[in-house]
Amino acid sequence: MATATAQPANKTASSDVERRMLRQMLLIRHFEEKAAEAYALGKIGGFCHLYIGQEAVAVGSLAALRDDDYVISSYREHGQALVRGVSPNAVMAELFGKATGCSKGKGGSMHLFDAEKRFMGGHGIVGGHIPLAAGIGFAIRYRGGDQVCLCYFGEAAVNIGAFHEALNMASVYKLPVIFCCENNRYGMGTAFERVAAVTDVVEHACSYDMAAELVDGMDALAVYDATRRAVERARKRGHPTLLEVRTYRYMGHSMSDPLHGVYRTKEEVEEQRKRDPISQLAMKLKEEGTLDQPGLDALDAEIRAEVEEAVRFADASPDPDPAELTTHVLAD
Amino acid sequence: MATLTYRDALNQALREEMQRDPDVFLIGEEVGVYQGAYKVSRGLLEEFGPTRVVDTPIAELGFAGIGVGAAMAGLRPVVEFMTWNFAVLALDQIVNSAAKMLYESGGQIPVPIVFRGPNGAALQLAAQHSQAWESWLAHIPGLKVVAPATPADAKGLLKSAIRDNNPVIVLEGEMLYNVKGNVPEGEHVVPLGRADVKRPGRDVTIVCHSKTVSVALKAAEQLAEHEGVSAEVLDLRSLRPLDEAAILESVGRTNRAVVVEEGWPHCGIGAQVVDVIQRDAFDQLDAPVLRVTQADVPMPYNKQLERLAKPSVERVVAAARRTLYLD
What we know:
The structure holds 2 protein chains of 2 kinds. By secondary structure, chain A is α/β, with parallel strands linked by helices. Chain A is 43% helix and 11% strand. In chain A, the strands form 2 sheets. In chain A, strands 2-1-3-4-8-7 form a 6-stranded parallel sheet, with helices on both faces. A two-stranded antiparallel sheet of chain A has the order 5-6. Chain B is of the alpha/beta class. Chain B has 2 domains: 2-183, Rossmann fold, CATH 3.40.50; 196-323, 3-Layer(aba) Sandwich (Rossmann fold), CATH 3.40.50.920. Chain B has helices at residues 6-20, 44-48, 60-72, 84-87, 91-98, 101-104, 134-138, 151-163, 212-227, 244-254, 269-280, 303-309, 313-323; strands at residues 2-5, 24-28, 53-55, 76-80, 114-119, 144-146, 168-173, 180-183, 196-199, 204-208, 231-235, 238-240, 257-260, 290-292. Chain B has a 7-stranded mixed sheet with strand order 3-2-4-5-7-6-12, with helices on both faces. In chain B, strands 9-11-10-13-14 form a 5-stranded mixed sheet, with helices on both faces. Chain B has a two-stranded antiparallel sheet with strand order 1-8. In chain B, helix 11 (269-280) links the parallel strand 13 (257-260) and strand 14. The relative contact order of chain B is 0.12. The interface between A and B is large, with 46 and 42 residues.
C-alpha cells in the first residue's frame, strides 16, 4: 500500500483558489517580515521562527481542508495559523505577548492556538505533537466523523521516536491523519543528510505500510493537489498519509540566528530564492491573464496595510492583567 | 457495602464511568485481550469492545500522546501504564503536552485525561522496576496527583479523576492490588485534594499515602501497645492539590509529626509536607518533624537489602519515639 513516489500534479485548483493562495502567501511573507522588524525592536521576545520561503506548504495544504478539520503544528506555525483564519491582529498580538493575542499572551510565537478554528497549537518540543495529531485522529474515528487532522513538522522531527510511534499507531488504528513533513533541509544548523541514514522522508512510510507522496514545496498548487489526495484517503477510508514536502527557509532557524550562518552558503540561499513560491504563482497567474502587474501591486499594498494594522493593533493592545498569571493552570 | 480488592475496586470505577459516559475509553499495553497486566481491566474489552478498550504497542510516549490528543478533541481517555517506571518514557506528553496545554492556549484547550498505573516498589524487582514517582509528578503545575491506599479510596478517587477536566495522575500501589476492604456500591466519589484520618490520635501525626498508610497503621498499633502513645494516621490521598488544612489541623492538635513515603528523601513529598508544617504550624511544634523514606539508593535486588531500603514499621516507630523524646 505504501506509495513512496512523487505523483504528477493535477493542478486542479480553480483560478479563485489560486488567487486566494497568492494572497495568503503574500500575507505570510509580509507578516513575517514585520515580525522580524518587531523582533529587532524588542517588541517580540523569546524564540521566533519565521516561515519565509515555506509559504506554499501552509497555503497549498490548508486549501484542501474543511473548516471542521483539525490542524496542529510545531513552533514554526505563524503562517499556518494565518492561513487557517486566525486574524493577523490576534497572531501579531500574541507574538507581542498581549492580552488580545490568540493565546491571551500566554503562549507566544511557539504556542498559537485557536480552538474555534480547530487550530490545535503550536508545540515547542520537536516531534512531541505528532502523537497528539494521532490522538485527534483517534477521537475523529472514535466518534465516526469524517474530519481529518493535518499535522505539520520539520524533517528533523523524523529522527525522534515520537514520529515513529505515532506513524505506526496511526497506521495500525487507521487514523485520518495527514503527516505533513516540511523538509527545509536543516534542523537548526544541521543538514538532514548529516544526521539521517535515510534522507528521503517518504521512505519511512514503507515501515508503517502507509501511503506517501513526495511533493515540491515551492509549488503551492502541487502541495494543494497532493494534500487533496491525502485528505480524500483520510476522509473516505480513514487512512493516514505521509507527505514529504520539499521546501526551503530563507531565514535563520530562529530570529537569534544569522540568515545563512556557517552551515549553508549565501549562494545556496540565493539559488533557492530563484524558485520563490510567491513569484512562481504570481507569474503563472499573469501568464494565464487572471492577474496583471497593477492588480498584483494593489494586492501587495492591501496586504502590507493589513500587516501594518496588525502591528498597530498589537502595539496598542494591553498586556495581560497581572491576575492572569494564575488563571488557566487548571480547568474548573 | 461490598468487600472488594483494590484491583476490583479500580475495575468497578472504570466500568461504572465507562457506562456513565461514552467519551471515556481505556488505552494502554495489555488492557484488552490480556485483561490488564495486573488485571485491573478484567472484562472491560468484552463489555465495551475494542474501540473503547484499546491495546497498544509498547510505545509509552506514543500512546500517552494519543490520549492527550484525544482529550484535546473532547474525549476523556484513561491511559494505563503497565507501571509508572515505564511512564518515564511518556513524561514529555504528561509534562509538556497535558499539563501545559490549558495555560499556553490561554484557557482554550482543556485536557481531561487520567494517567494511571502501579507505582512504587513491589518485591525484588530491582532498581528500574521499583520506583515511586510522586514527587516528580506532583512538582508540575497543571497536573493533579492522587495515590489511594484503600479499595474504597481507589474507587472513589479514580471516579473523581475521570470526571475531572484536568490531567489527573492516579498512582496505584503495586503491592495493594490484592488488599481487600469495604467499598460503597454505586456512586462513591472521593473528592480530589482531601486527606483522610485513617486512625485518630493525640500524641503524634504520621503523615503518609499509598502503601505507607498500612506501614503507618501498624506503627501506630505498636506505639499504642508498647509505648502507650496515641498516633494519628493522616492519609494524604491527594498529593496535588495537597490538603494543607488537614495537615495543619492534625499537627495543631498533636504538636508532632512524622512524614512517611516510598520515594527517595531528596526533594520528596515529605519535604513539601514539612515545608507546610514549619511555615504555618511552627509555634505549635514540640519537636522537629522527622521523615521516613526509601534509602537514598537505587533499589537493590537482594531481599535483605531491599527490606532495609524500604520505609518500615520499625523506622516509623523509631521516628515517632524520637519526636516524643522517648529515646
